[in-house]
Specification:
Layout lengths: L11 H7 L16 E5 L5 E5 L2 H6 L29 H9 L13 E5 L5 E6 L14 H12 L8 H8 L1 H4 L5 E4 L3 E5 H20 L13 E4 L14 H26 L3 E4 L6 H9 L3 E4 L2 E4 L1 E4 L13 E4 L2 H8 L4 E4 L3 E7 L8 H15 L5 E5 L8 H9 L1 H4 L3 E3 L4 H9 L4 H13 L17 E6 L6 E3 L7 E3 L3 H10 L17 E6 L2 E6 L3 E6 L2 H4 L2 H16 L9 E4 L4 H10 L2 H6 L21 H9 L5 E4 L15 E4 L2 H10 L12 E2 L5 E2 L1 H4 L3 H11 L2 H11 L4 H4 L37 E9 L6 H4 L10 H8 L17 H7 L18 E4 L4 E4 H10 L4 E4 L12 H9 L1 E6 L4 H9 L3 E5 L15 E4 L13 E6 L4 E6 L4 H8 L3 H11 L1
Parallel strand pairs: 4-10, 6-7, 6-11, 7-8, 11-12, 14-15, 14-17, 15-16, 22-23, 22-24, 24-25, 28-31, 31-32, 32-33
Antiparallel strand pairs: 1-2, 3-4, 5-13, 9-10, 18-19, 20-21, 26-27, 28-34, 29-30, 33-36, 34-35, 35-36
């Protein structure tokens, strides 16, 4: 519970008595105490140094503003949770216990003075350690260091862990393990619903084990933003926002009511309602604290989120990254995250972007550079004189795409640009002063007007911003950057090349065919490369005023020249927050976007996550009947095949201004330097350069149109909810009343029959290969978020329960129902399973019978026969979105192990969390080189006692036809082995909480 100062003081002993806390007869004077004890997830209490004035502040309550009391702008109170049942008692149950030894680092607890007298609070001072190694640490590592010091209890976080971090230069290359406790957790609804489902079912499980279900409660602030449910059903309409929101609530009323129940049933959980914006932009503009002041203790904001693009907040100087849903749930419940102390790549920026080059061009360039360098599992920290040329929004754009270049974080330390942005977005002057004072005092602030101490990095990169050129990425991967001048040639190369990441294998004689059809009674035509979706979407770009207003200027110039987007192109604009709408209206540019069909369709992720809605039937038929390679151009961060829309095989990432330009051109088969983008009404050719705004034009509009009061008014309104949300009625119960008839929310089977004894490592013997994959199988392949195909096992399940096809909604919206999601696992229509010898689609071969079945039906048959299954794959298995269902689904299908060349970081963690064994082939080996066909039966030589297993040890795998090969076990830490022994991370947490 987080509280602010608004109540009168009271006698400390009276307060304790009012809480029902029994006082010892010889209690020392509380006014002189410097230690308050904080309950950890162990049964003991751990000390935390606080003055009595700080303790007293913990009793003061903010005014309620919404479904929670919340006032995150105040410097003292980032949050308050108002509850009817004795908030003071709950506070002291967590904060006060038996008083004994001091915090191990109480000696460096220092006061942070205000300039006008008094103090902001206390903080753990890194300079007070007097250790010269700290001055050389990257800023991102200093945040890990401060967290370890503040949370050090010599149980969950030990002094040895602190020393490992201080000695980062020597310890990081050794892949040492450290614990990390984030300050808060961030969720969106696609990942948030299953997280709340898990928490609700954990309450049932702990009750069944004879313990108190209220032990399942978030111990850190949890922010859940509903942004992934809105679909572009209605586009090119002034009424699109309301129409799409009405449909969103109609489809998702049950899910939304469940989340509203969760916000009331669980402490420390805030739910931001639908229609408010995209989670990462709301986090950047509103939720991000930069520095917390909780109970008078100051510390850096840090966050883990169940969306991989949580890294966007790194642009604000807040350490944040994506984790698996189950790992986030454990963090909510007070479990430290076990992580390998990362290496840090220093990325020096110099120079200035050329005129006409956008932040999107820069981030696509940076993504390609970092993918080539190799930064998986590492932090990237940006520095150099070029930093002053990047706005905060530009930095956030680069940080956002950390998952695409493979890094855990893309971090921008706080400097004057950060402080200016905080003021612009409505943070109070007092809050900004506190942030600056704290970060300067603790050597976490970069002042580029002062000489810079040399920091040590694991490796170094440098980029001259002047060398960045306009570009797009695609057609199937974010890091396949194509300079704008080369797009036409690259497109024709893709048509010629064999099917792959850069190929469609279209015969030369078919490449120029034109398909004519009727669209709403008017003649229309499509060909290979025709743009059928043009979407300004995604947190990556909609938070950046320069590219959003730049798109408006392109639309304005096009309108003035008489150009018009073809009516069969599905155009849409989905801002990341209401602020974008305000400045587009203020600038007068929204009307020109509307004229080109880019009406606002809603406030959420939309097309970027596959919620692009249906194409017109005439367009869809023209594509499918003629096997056209149609294109989508979007300002997103992911363009994996099958993600954006099932009918767009080519998907290109581009800046918002380029999205408008390609919509006007109607094709990606164009050289903007040489070919006209369109013609005026009098027949004059219009070229790209005529509609492209200069950097100065954009800067002038940004200066006059983006105003601080826009942020204030937007986020004051956000806390009031909206009419549809406020009308949702939910029961005031701590245990959820599961409805067995629900097709949205279903009690999962993870804890069924659970006992207090860990099951130990399972034996994997004579397992069949369920699926045999190549490289780059994404979480979209494993657990699609988009539409539910009418012939899929999930569709059959829904139809059998009376759900009409038009009400199927998406897989993402049904993640609260394990029955749907297990059937939807490996249901991507573009998935390539090598057991099918080239056939594309969500099927596999049931090895014992030789039958071709849906993956779910084959898995069910194996499970029914008591036969284990494994998955074999190539490199980068599990890349893409952080999607816990990409691990939960295989586990429910009976998969015991996954053997690959390499894993994406978050997905490997998710597999561990669900008790699936992750194994990697030895370097230079894979299924093909070892002669594995997938028709063998596999036995994994893993010890059956967890005490005999080591992180990273070699494991022998044998087959029934005499093959044998060695794999590396990818349990990376001892903590992960403990999770595995318990059958998963959530089972581990339940058993530990039950013991308390």
């Amino acid at each position: 519970m987080y509280m602010s100062s608004s109540c009168p003081t009271a006698s400390s002993s009276a307060i304790l008595r009012a809480c029902g806390i029994r006082l010892p007869r010889r209690l020392p004077s509380i006014a002189n105490l410097s230690v308050i004890w904080t309950r950890t997830s162990s049964s003991a209490y751990q000390p935390r140094s606080l003055s009595f004035s700080s303790a007293l502040r913990s009793l003061r309550i903010c005014n309620p503003r919404w479904s929670h009391g919340v006032d995150w702008r105040a410097p003292i109170c980032p949050r308050a949770q108002i509850r009817a049942d004795s908030p003071v008692l709950q506070r002291f149950e967590r904060r006060i216990g038996t008083m004994a030894s001091e915090h191990p680092f109480s000696g460096i607890l220092s006061s942070l003075p205000r300039q006008d007298g008094g103090e902001f609070g206390k903080y753990y001072s890194l300079p007070a350690l007097n250790d010269p190694r700290i001055d050389k640490l990257p800023y991102s590592i200093r945040i890990l260091l401060e967290s370890a010091i503040r949370n050090c209890d010599n149980f969950q976080v030990k002094k040895e862990d602190v020393e490992k971090i201080i000695d980062w230069e020597n310890t990081a290359p050794k892949q040492v393990e450290i614990p990390f406790k984030p300050a808060r957790v961030l969720l969106q609804d696609f990942t948030g619903v299953p997280a709340v489902v898990d928490l609700a079912s954990m309450r049932d499980a702990i009750k069944d084990l004879g313990s108190n279900p209220d032990k399942i409660n978030p111990l850190v602030p949890v922010d859940l933003v509903i942004d992934h449910s809105v679909q572009v059903d209605v586009a090119r309409s002034e009424n699109a926002v309301q129409a799409n929101m009405d449909l969103e609530f109609k489809r998702n009323k049950e899910r939304f009511a469940f989340l509203k129940w969760g916000s009331n049933a669980f402490h420390n959980m805030l739910v931001v309602p639908p229609g408010s914006g995209i989670v990462h932009q709301v986090n950047l503009e509103y939720l991000g604290r930069v520095v917390f002041n909780t109970d008078g203790i100051l510390y850096p904001d840090s966050v883990v989120g169940t969306d991989s693009h949580t890294t966007m907040i790194d642009g604000l100087g807040v350490a944040g990254w994506g984790v698996g849903g189950i790992e986030a749930e454990a963090a909510m419940l007070g479990q430290p995250m076990s992580m390998v102390l990362p290496g840090v790549v220093g990325f020096k920026l110099s120079g200035k972007l050329r005129d006409g080059v956008t932040a999107t061009d820069l981030v696509l360039t940076v993504t390609q550079i970092l993918r080539k360098h190799g930064v998986v599992g590492k932090f990237v920290e940006f520095y150099g004189e070029g930093m002053g040329q990047l706005s905060l929004a530009d930095r956030a754009t680069i940080a956002n795409m950390s998952p695409e270049y493979g890094a855990t974080m893309g971090f921008f330390p706080v400097d004057h640009v950060t402080l200016q942005y905080l003021r612009l977005t409505g943070r109070s002057n007092e809050t900004v002063s506190m942030i600056e004072a704290y970060l300067r005092a603790n050597k976490m602030f970069v002042d580029y007007s002062q000489p810079q101490n040399e920091r040590v990095y694991s490796s170094y990169l440098e980029l001259d911003l002047a060398g960045v050129e306009p570009c797009i990425s695609g057609p199937k991967r974010p890091h396949d950057r194509v300079p704008l001048k080369d797009v036409k040639a690259d497109w024709h190369s893709c048509l010629d090349s064999k099917v792959g990441f850069k190929g469609f294998a279209i015969p030369e004689e078919q490449q120029d065919k034109i398909v004519k059809f009727s669209f709403l009674g008017e003649p229309a035509e499509l060909k290979h490369g025709s743009v059928v979706i043009a979407a300004i979407t995604s947190c990556t770009n909609t938070s950046n005023p320069s590219v959003m207003l730049g798109a408006g200027l392109v639309a304005k110039k096009a309108c003035e020249l008489g150009l018009q987007v073809k009516p069969w192109v599905k155009t849409s604009l989905a801002p990341g927050s209401g602020v974008v709408t305000k400045y587009l209206l203020q600038s007068g540019l929204q009307k020109f976007l509307n004229q080109q069909g880019f009406h606002i369709v809603g406030y959420g992720c939309t097309t970027c996550i596959g919620n692009s809605g249906d194409l017109d039937e005439s367009v869809a038929s023209a594509i499918t009947d003629n096997d056209l390679v149609a294109a989508a151009v979007l300002s997103g961060n992911r363009n994996f095949e099958g993600r954006v829309h099932p009918l767009t095989r080519a998907n290109y990432l581009a800046s918002p201004p380029l999205v408008v330009a390609y919509a006007l051109a109607g094709t990606v088969d164009i050289d903007f330097e040489k070919e006209p983008i369109g013609t005026t009404k009098d027949g004059r050719s219009v070229y790209f350069k005529e509609i492209w705004p200069t950097s100065e034009e954009i800067a002038q509009v940004v200066q006059s149109s983006v105003l601080p009061e826009m942020f204030n008014s937007t986020y004051e309104a956000i806390t009031k909810g909206n009419q549809l949300w406020n009308q949702l009625s939910v029961p005031p119960s701590s245990l959820y009343a599961w409805d067995p008839e629900s097709t949205y929310i279903h009690k999962p089977p993870y804890f069924s029959g659970m006992t207090m004894n860990p099951p130990g490592p399972p034996e994997v013997k004579d397992a069949y290969c369920l699926l045999l994959f190549g490289d780059s199988i994404t979480t979209d392949h494993i657990s699609p978020a988009g539409s539910i195909h009418k012939d899929s096992p999930a569709a059959k399940y829904l139809v059998d329960r009376g759900v009409d096809r038009r009400d199927f909604n998406s897989y993402g919206s049904r993640r609260g129902n394990d029955e749907v999601m297990a059937r939807g696992t490996f249901a991507n229509i573009r998935i390539v399973n090598k057991l099918l010898n080239g056939e594309v689609g969500p099927k596999t071969i049931h090895i014992p019978s030789g039958e071709k079945l849906s993956v779910y039906d084959a898995a069910l048959r194996y499970k029914s026969a008591g036969q284990d299954t494994i998955i074999i794959a190539g490199a980068e298995y599990g890349s893409g979105s952080s999607r816990d269902w990409a691990a939960k689904g295989p586990m429910l299908q009976g998969v015991k192990a996954v053997i690959t060349k390499s894993f994406e970081r978050i997905h490997r963690s998710n597999l561990v969390g669900m008790g699936i064994i992750p194994l990697c082939f030895k370097t230079g080996e894979d299924a093909e080189s070892l002669g594995l066909t997938g028709h063998e039966r596999y036995t994994i030589g893993l010890p059956t006692k967890v005490s005999e297993i080591r992180p990273g040890q070699d494991i022998t795998v044998t087959t029934d036809d005499g093959k044998s090969f060695t794999c590396t076990l990818r349990f990376d830490t001892e903590v992960e082995l403990a999770y595995f022994d318990h059958g998963g991370i959530l089972q581990y947490v339940i058993r530990n909480l039950t013991k308390q």
